[in-house]
Design brief:
The structure is a single chain. The chain is of the alpha/beta class. The protein folds into two domains: 319 residues, 3-Layer(aba) Sandwich (Alkaline Phosphatase, subunit A), CATH 3.40.720.10; 166 residues, no CATH class. The chain is built from 16 helices and 20 strands. Strand 15 and strand 16 form a beta hairpin. It is globular and about 65 Å long.
Length: 528
């Protein structure tokens, strides 16, 4: 124990690894650059197909999704056709629990999709300023929450960064909230690390995650909503948030002893929005493998309902964000609350062979309606299901954009071919990776260019959908890890590292081993 040096992990959630490299190289991010110059840098790769939702539980548990079961906050409840709030975060032992059981003192601050542990030896905070709000703001010890609110306050950004539409001024205000949030996070981290004894500490900057989703079109000329004149006026808002995070990292590092091992990591990345996820349910319906339920006859004529909704939406969009945002947040909390209780998917299970489930936008999920697993399963396991998957894969691979003839789908995986484990049935059965090379626009950002998504094949004909989702950035599987400390060599690792290897590596740096995990310690990061 005496030879183990303290380890601090600073995670920049969903940051683009390419931007971190480029901006470290040109001086935009001097503190990240300093860690890179003095340490070892490696590319990382997350869990295949499920890198949107499963990244963080896979990281801190050191196992793949087939063994922890998480891929989305509102998955299908086994044995039903209902969505529910995920409730199995305790299936695997987290890194900080392994360290706690070995007598190490830990500080775990705002790790996404992590529950508050009942057996942490030290300090834990969840839900203070996260992109994915799995749990409300909680701390261990419990009294720390009151002290944080008194000394630091709430995170300045909304609890959910999504909204329906923002003006240019509102985008600037949102970026400023994230910038102030990064500074507040630095103050919080400095205070706790100075006050608490610790062997391992982790803090996660979720500000980069929200910036990537909401502000990407202020950075990337490839995005259809990018407007050079607007960006000249506002500046690159993504860059401004990254600069604030880098400054916060510098403030935290300034107070550390020289023998602390420092790791800066982005587990998965970010780029422009892409893919045809919003078309998939219609595609499955056209192929005859999902049978939607018939909508009951409406007492009010559809054109009257549509006119009312249009007027209501128009009035809503005229409100300032200070009024509109709380209304949107309330609607989201209400919707999530209902999902946590019961939300039945709208299809006829007796006439359905498979149906879409949520996984993210760059990769879509499909669940088979298997006999013996689903309440009204129509597909027999084994040869019948295999033949169905092969046929559906061919149909999906035939999808093209009607204007260009470009294929819409890069590949279709069976999750059983990617993962193993006791939780495999909790995951989608098929994963559809869309074409990542063509950015998707949205009707609620910029001029609306590129918002109309289209799909065509000889079997489905033409399908169109107008994207009204507010996000302009979406996840990528690639990430980066940089480690600097006693005994760690300088340079670049000539191979890609799995994110499953990081937690076992961090445990080994502190003289511990994580039992029964899929990842392995990275030899170059563990001094002999």
């Amino acid at each position: 124990m005496a030879d183990q040096k303290p380890l601090l992990v600073l995670a920049i959630d969903a940051a683009s690894p390419q931007l971190l490299r480029d901006w470290a190289a040109d001086g935009t991010l001097p503190n990240v650059a300093s860690v890179m110059a003095g340490g070892l840098t490696a590319e990382t790769r997350g869990v295949e197909g499920l890198f949107d939702g499963a990244t963080w539980p896979s990281f801190y548990g050191g196992v793949g999704p087939g063994r922890h079961g998480f891929h989305w906050l509102d998955p299908i409840r086994l044995g039903t056709y209902e969505k529910h709030r995920y409730e199995h975060f305790a299936l695997r032992t987290a890194l900080w629990e392994t360290l706690s059981e070995a007598g190490r003192r830990v500080v775990a601050l705002d790790v996404p999709l992590a529950r508050r542990s009942p057996r942490v030896n030290g300090v834990q905070m969840v839900g203070w300023g996260l992109h994915d709000e799995a749990f409300p703001f909680q701390t261990t010890p419990r009294g720390l929450k009151r002290r944080i609110l008194k000394r630091i306050g709430h995170h300045p950004a909304p609890r959910n960064c999504d909204t329906t539409r923002r003006s240019i001024a509102e985008y600037r205000d949102f970026a400023d909230q994230l910038i102030r949030g990064a500074a507040a996070r630095a103050r919080l981290t400095q205070w706790i690390l100075a006050e608490e004894p610790w062997d391992f500490a982790i803090q996660v900057f979720s500000e980069a995650h929200c910036a990537g989703h909401q502000l990407w079109h202020f950075h990337d000329p490839a995005h259809p909503a990018y407007d050079p004149q607007v960006t000249r006026d506002t500046g690159d808002l993504v860059r401004q948030v990254y600069v604030a995070i880098d400054r916060a990292i510098g403030d935290i590092l300034a107070g550390l002893e020289s023998d602390v091992t420092v790791v800066v990591v982005a587990l998965h990345g970010m780029s422009y929005m892409c893919g045809s996820n919003f078309l998939l349910s219609q595609v499955l319906s056209r192929l005859g493998v999902t049978t939607p339920v018939r909508t009951p006859r409406q007492a009010t004529p559809p054109q009257v309902q549509a006119g009312f909704r249009s007027r209501l939406a128009g009035a809503y969009h005229l409100m300032p964000e200070s009024v509109r945002s709380p209304l949107f947040q309330f609607r989201q909390r209400l919707r999530r609350g209902l999902q946590g209780q019961k939300q039945v998917l709208r299809f006829d299970p007796a006439q359905t062979q498979c149906f879409q489930v949520d996984t993210g936008l760059a990769v879509s999920g499909i669940r088979l309606n298997l006999a013996g697993r689903e309440p009204q399963g129509t597909l027999e396991r084994g040869a019948v299901a295999d033949a169905f998957c092969a046929s559906l894969t061919r149909d999906l691979m035939d999808l093209v954009h009607p204007d260009t003839g470009r294929p819409l789908v890069q590949r279709v995986w069976k999750t059983a071919d990617l993962f193993t484990g006791e939780c495999l049935d909790m995951l989608p059965d098929l994963l559809v990776e869309w074409d990542h090379d063509v950015p998707t626009g949205t009707a609620v950002a910029g001029s609306g260019q590129g918002a109309v998504q289209k799909a065509f094949s000889s079997r489905i004909g033409l399908i169109e959908h107008t994207n009204t989702y507010c996000r302009t950035g979406e996840h990528r599987i690639e990430g980066i890890v940089v480690a600097r400390g006693p005994g760690i060599p300088q340079g670049t690792l000539p191979r890609v590292v799995s994110t499953l290897d990081l937690a076992p590596t961090f445990a080994r740096l502190l003289g511990c081993d994580m039992a029964d995990v899929d990842g392995q310690p990275i030899p170059e990061l563990v001094p002999r």
